[in-house]
Design goal:
The protein has 226 residues and is α/β, with parallel strands linked by helices. Helix content is 45%, strand content 12%. It is built from ten helices and six strands. Strand 4, helix 9 and strand 5 form a beta-alpha-beta unit. The longest helix has 18 residues.
Length: 226
C-alpha cells in the first residue's frame, strides 16, 4: 500500500493510539522513566527511551529492571513508573497538533475507537479532559486476556467492536510497537512522525509529520464518509 493508494481510499472505521498520537504524553512517559530511575538510584541505559516507546508500563518496568541488573525491582519499578506518569498527565493533559480536529471530523461519519497499552482509567480521563472521549464508540486497552501491543489483540478487538473487517479499518500510530500491532491485526496504518530510513518505513502505509498535515486533512475532508 503506497501513500497515493491510501489517500484514494475511504476507511470504514478508524482506530487511534492514544499516547503520542492523540495526547501529547510521550514526553510525560520519558520524564516518568527518568524520575523512576532516579528514585531507585539507577542510571538510564543508553538508548533506553527508544526501546521503551510504546510498550506497556509493566513491560517497561521489566525492561528497566533487566537492563540495570535489578530483577528484584520489576514490580516496584513498574508501579513507580505508572504512579509518576499519572501525576504528570493530571498536571498537563495536552492534545497532539491536529488530533482534535481530525477526530471530530471523522466522528461525524465513521465509528472511531482507541487502542492503547495504557490503563483504561488513564486513557478515558485524558480523552475526557481533552473533550474527545464522546467521539469514540469504543476504548480498548490491554489486560484481562487482551495482550498488549505489539500483539494484535487491541486492534483486533477494536475493529470487531466497530463491526468492520480489519482490511477496511485504518490505524493511526506513533510507535513501531503500535504499528506492528495494527499490521498484525490486518489494518492499514498511518505513521505519525518522520518517515524512518530503510525497512522501518514499511511499517506504515503513509507517514505524516503531524495530524495537522495539510494533505492528511484534505484526505479526511474529501474521503471520510465518501
Amino acid at each position: 500500500m503506497t501513500a497515493r493508494n491510501i489517500l484514494s481510499w475511504s476507511p470504514s472505521a478508524i482506530v487511534f493510539d492514544c499516547d503520542g498520537t492523540l495526547m501529547d504524553t510521550e514526553r510525560h512517559w520519558q520524564e516518568a522513566r527518568n524520575i523512576t530511575f532516579r528514585v531507585f538510584g539507577l542510571k538510564p541505559p543508553a538508548g533506553f527511551a527508544d526501546r521503551a516507546k510504546g510498550i506497556h508500563y509493566t513491560e517497561c518496568g521489566a525492561l528497566m529492571a533487566e537492563e540495570t541488573g535489578k530483577p528484584d525491582l520489576v514490580d516496584d519499578l513498574a508501579d513507580t513508573l505508572l504512579t509518576t506518569f499519572t501525576a504528570l498527565v493530571d498536571q498537563d493533559p495536552v492534545t497532539m497538533p491536529g488530533a482534535a480536529a481530525l477526530v471530530r471530523l471523522a466522528a461525524r461519519h465513521l465509528p472511531l475507537a482507541v487502542a492503547s497499552n495504557c490503563p483504561r482509567e488513564m486513557v478515558e480521563s485524558c480523552l475526557d479532559r481533552a473533550g474527545l472521549l464522546s467521539s469514540f464508540s469504543h476504548v480498548v486497552v490491554a489486560g484481562e486476556g487482551v495482550r498488549p501491543k505489539p500483539e494484535p489483540d487491541v486492534y483486533s478487538m477494536a475493529v470487531r467492536l466497530c463491526d468492520v473487517p480489519p482490511e477496511e479499518a485504518l490505524a493511526v500510530e506513533d510507535s513501531f510497537t503500535g504499528m506492528d500491532s495494527a499490521r498484525r491485526a490486518g489494518l492499514r496504518v498511518i505513521g505519525l512522525g518522520p518517515c524512518p530510513p530503510g525497512p522501518d518505513a514499511e511499517r506504515a502505509d503513509l507517514w505524516v509529520a503531524s495530524l495537522a498535515d495539510r494533505e492528511l486533512m484534505w484526505w479526511a475532508r474529501s474521503r471520510i464518509g465518501a
